[in-house]
Specification:
The chain has 207 residues and is of the alpha+beta class. It is 64% helix and 10% strand. The chain has a domain of 102 residues: 60s Ribosomal Protein L30, Chain: A, CATH 3.30.1330.60. Helix 4 links the parallel strand 2 and strand 3. The radius of gyration is 52 Å and the shape is rod-shaped. The N and C termini lie far apart (138 Å).
């Protein structure tokens, strides 16, 4: 009898608990909100959106192309400018080399400027006027005949004659200086008139 009573009491406790649990579970399930399906985008709006995206892409491509074209043009202009400057520098160096390589020559025991020497000095004057920042040393040279002292003095007169001619052509005196080497620096070591004629000269050095 007690056993039956105990079972009955247990059922009275367990059954309400189960009913309460099921009821709560239902409430939890029912409390979860259900999201409404996303509204479909109208077809016309999709077309407009795609068109806008395509237009934006085309504009960006055009902008990138324009930027590249501008950069290519800038690089081309820089290259052309560099080429011009390089050409000018080569021409300047060539003119300077011609200036230094072209000597003037004198008759035996003379410092007079001959007609051929005047033409050479006139060309040198043009270069000096265009290159006003250049400083030039005029060297006087002689052949081996005569004493060393005499040839030093003769070389000095030859250098000064060339300088005076350039000054008469309007060249700034600050651009010119002279020195005499006499017979010390021959360009031809021969002992004949041909060699001596080459050594009777004024040579020009750009500092």
């Amino acid at each position: 009898m007690r056993k039956k009573l105990w079972i009955f009491i247990s059922l009275l406790v367990i059954v309400p608990g189960l009913l309460f649990t099921v009821s709560c579970a239902k409430k939890v399930v029912q409390s979860v909100p259900v999201e409404a399906p996303a509204a479909a985008v109208p077809a016309e709006e999709k077309v407009d959106l795609l068109a806008a995206q395509e237009e934006a892409a085309q504009e960006e491509a055009a902008r990138q192309w324009e930027m590249k074209a501008e950069e290519d043009l800038r690089q081309t202009q820089l290259a052309e400018q560099a080429a011009k400057e390089e050409e000018m520098e080569r021409a300047k160096m060539a003119a300077m080399q011609m200036f230094m390589n072209e000597d003037i020559y004198f008759d035996f025991d003379s410092s007079a400027i001959g007609d051929m020497a005047k033409n050479v000095l006139s060309r040198k004057a043009e270069w000096l006027r265009m290159t006003s920042d250049a400083s030039v040393i005029i060297e006087g040279h002689c052949d081996a005949r005569g004493t060393s002292a005499y040839n030093i003095a003769l070389g000095d007169r030859r250098a000064e004659s060339a300088k005076s001619f350039l000054l008469d052509l309007g060249i700034d005196a600050n651009q010119l200086s002279t020195i005499s080497y006499g017979e010390e620096r021959p360009v031809d070591m021969g002992k004949n008139e041909e060699a001596w004629a080459k050594n009777r000269r004024a040579h020009f050095v750009v500092e």
